[in-house]
């Protein structure tokens, strides 16, 4: 159903995931570098500057008109972090030629993406347009500011900042607002060139195309050899202090947003990875999980109470929206649930159900082209590429003892709560 | 009889039938997919608060938030929680309540037959106890409070309250932390019996299924159950004035970035079927041509720093109400509203060039095809269109055959200033008055 090929165009690896399933072709171009404040800030800005003007389409409007002509093709950019890496991505989605009388949409799309990255609009002196830089700076600042407006998201960000102080993982992929004002057209240009010369660049394509069609479409892309890099293992968060840190912040909101951060030193490429996924599933990943059953259903303390396993960094997070006055009770119940995991207090039936749900989730992800790309790429970045079958078998093979074993590795590090004044 | 339809423009086939008890069943096979997505929906939502209960003569008005409360409580059965039954069968289940619909759904890659039966059985079996109804109030109160802290939600509901004076679309779908405490077990049964009759419901299955087998399964399941004779539903929706209630509200919240959402109330059209669908698509085209990223106005607003990529516009058309909404994050809500007003005025005077409309048509066809990758989209939208007497599979042919200049006729009726209102969210910490 999904045939995987890797073809190379000079130094550019192209991952072709061939399938007839979709009405579209989805293309993603990823550029990977170390996560630092400076790089994140420059690249978050670059992602927006590059999609605003190219040599042949020198304004946002020209670009959008061209995309509309390609039957509503969409170009999106985004920045994210995977472990200690910063990733700048371009996504282009285009309808399959078979639905449209005119053809060559795929070839035109690749050519356009190539232009966006390699042939940006530059002024007479060879810099990005100062006008565009200023506009995008202002908008990036606004995006950074709005993280605060979504309180659930903000509480998660603040937890990570508190928990991973002095660690690259604390850096937001948008970078830093104060540093944004120091970005100049020169520094942006330098970062752009460094990106093209040094980054790990990869192209992913999900769609109904042969290797030959892909090779033909990318034939004119030219990229130089990359400097050699060692494979990097994310820096581990080590707990120096024994005490759990509690951070309380006051905001003018009604409901308290609780975010708890745990160290969970099991990583994506580890053999224990599957057990960690199952552990998270039993603990807080599903409606049958301990958190949902106890915090919500039994005690009516919250509407949402879930956990998330961050395999790129060996962390586990718990989130719940509660009455501020119920903070002690809620955190106590959450800790008890974790203790129950450590004690192996879950049934074989719950274990089997969790595995089934995880496998279900995985197969469902393979029904979405965007998820297929993101899973494949994440595996590439984190040093373990798994196909669907391997992954499913891995989950199936997890035993109760293995779940208990990994549950014992979980240690609470930081409790963060954002709450109103009158609690 | 099961009818089969082949849709060449989309390369899709679908099947539909109406069972003896009135339930409509639709199947869209997607053989290459791993999963199957099924959605069981009643044509009943938060706006249906005044109605004549089944078997009664007088109309009643029930506490706000009851359709949503019912949705939460349906998952409980004598033997426990249906979420778990789905979980044991490898399915993830969910539900949602909108202004006009309550939908129960699951997606799964296995045990599809069992899961379909579970879906039909739990939605067709109400079981509420006094204790469980009381316990749910705490959970729903937290859900409401979660939304109260969400500026996107707040800006939207303030706009609706500014636009509508009597229509219940202005009431929060989940009700209030007060109204939900008035809800009783008896209220829930009354609403259930009135609105969950099979003739008011639809089952849509999209995914890797055998059509004959599924149809037989559903039919057999339904024939085993007995339902009272259907009565025509009487829902009372107050007549809504043409004009908006007030021009603006400004709400202070703990945010960094202000928001501005502008709306125009529109009287729901009298068309049905393909005419209604064509009307909706023309309205979508009009908005895309005026406010879409390919339009020159968007570019200007972006350069002026008044909008960013949160800027959105939508034509919402549903049972008994319709409105346009335009807006997003902006550092200057007042300025943005002024500029939107200018743009609308300019378009009303000068129209829109045909080539722009042609471009928008292309874009809409492509965007629609793209969405067909998603089984959730197909099931949700099939249901939405069908309850309004439209067919989602007509979208591409109507777009392809439309005379795009017809879109301009809409300009006579929409954007009437008396129907307009706006809703702002501004930072609490700022001392400046935002007019």
Would you write up a description of this structure?
- The complex is a heterodimer of chains A (about 425) and B (about 425).
- Chain A has about 425 residues and is an alpha+beta fold.
- Chain A has 15 helices and eleven strands.
- Chain A folds into two domains: about 220 residues, Cytochrome Bc1 Complex, Chain A, domain 1, CATH 3.30.830.10; about 180 residues, Cytochrome Bc1 Complex, Chain A, domain 1 (2-Layer Sandwich).
- In chain A, the strands form two sheets. In chain A, strands 1-2-6-3-5-4 form a six-stranded mixed beta sheet, sandwiched between helices.
- In chain A, β9 and β10 form a beta hairpin.
- In chain A, α10 runs antiparallel to α11.
- Chain A is globular.
- Chain A starts with a strand and ends with a strand.
- Chain B is an alpha+beta fold.
- Chain B folds into two domains: about 220 residues, Cytochrome Bc1 Complex, Chain A, domain 1 (2-Layer Sandwich), CATH 3.30.830.10; about 180 residues, Cytochrome Bc1 Complex, Chain A, domain 1 (2-Layer Sandwich).
- Chain B starts with a strand and ends in an 8-residue tail after the last strand.
- The C terminus of chain B is likely disordered.
- Chains A and B meet through α2, β5, α4 and α12 of A and α2, β9, α4, α9 and α11 of B.
